[in-house]
Amino acid sequence: MSLHIAIACGGTGGHLFPGIAVAEELRKRGHECLVLISRKEIDTLASAGYEHLRFEKLDAIGMPKLLSPKIVPFAVGIWRTLGLCRAMLREFKADAVLGMGGFTSLPPVWAGRKLGARTFIHDSNAIPGKANRVTARFADCVFLGMEECAAYFPKRRTEVTGTPIRSSLLVPVTPAEAEAYFGFQPSPEAKTLLVTGGSQGARGINRGLAAAAAELRKRVGGKLRIIHLAGREDAETVAKAYGAAGIDFSVESFCPRMECAYALADLVVSRSGASSLTELAMFGLPSVLVPYPYAAEDHQTRNAETFTRRNAAIMLREADLAPAEFGRLLGDLLADDAARARIGAFAKNLATPRAAENIAALIEEKCRR
Fold this sequence. Notes:
Rossmann fold, alpha/beta, 16% strand, 2 domains, seven-stranded parallel beta sheet
């Protein structure tokens, strides 16, 4: 029996890409999918190239503090979006609704419950966001990317599924293809550092790498390449720093072909959003994780700790990115093939390659009961 399943996954790449992966798996199984995203530019960019999926846009909604004067407009926005979602889901004849996190997921899951559909949420992190804590009240089951998160949903049925990654990342890419994509000359002996702050860049990491560029160049020499996904605002500043240090680089505001970046990377500097960690594990890449210090409940630090406890990454606080020490650490890691291989192998042990299949199978099971 073919099911009609709506997936709400807008707001950030960390919600969108796993949602797309689940949608693609469900389509492979013969089901119809409606993917609900936000109107943010990042959602438009990230959803490009998936013409085989049906996307509909909703207003992005961020919850203010309870005593904030913005709480009333927030409630009005939620209520308005709830009505829109009910109309969309009724027209789509949704059998199930899956929310991938963020307040973009709340109205669709809530509307699905009111319409009698089976409802689910997925949380990728070690600590759930406040949106998922609220949305869980309307969910039949909570899917988890990390087992540590189960303790935060004591009154809900939970299933540890892992966090899905987009299928495009799994397309084999040769080093020559990846070098051509980033405009590098072929260089088998070069070491490539990949720097990424997630789908929207990370100012703290950008400034830290720019300041450490000269020290890093001194330690690694001319056989260094950097792929840096800096976001739009910092791309020019970062590029100037690398150019002044004499480093071969490719600075992008956003990379639609992360499979090419991962194919070249010898070492990664990254935020510790759950989707980023999932991808690092899948590719078995050694990394230096710099958690976003202002993330809700410091969940990125907790995410990073799930890796560092297992020797699968090194964690640095953003406040500790002193140029000399940061450049020295990265240089030493790039020079030590054995250390990188060891860290990468531990990361690989944390991969969940069947996460999208796990979620799709559970949705099928629960809808057919």
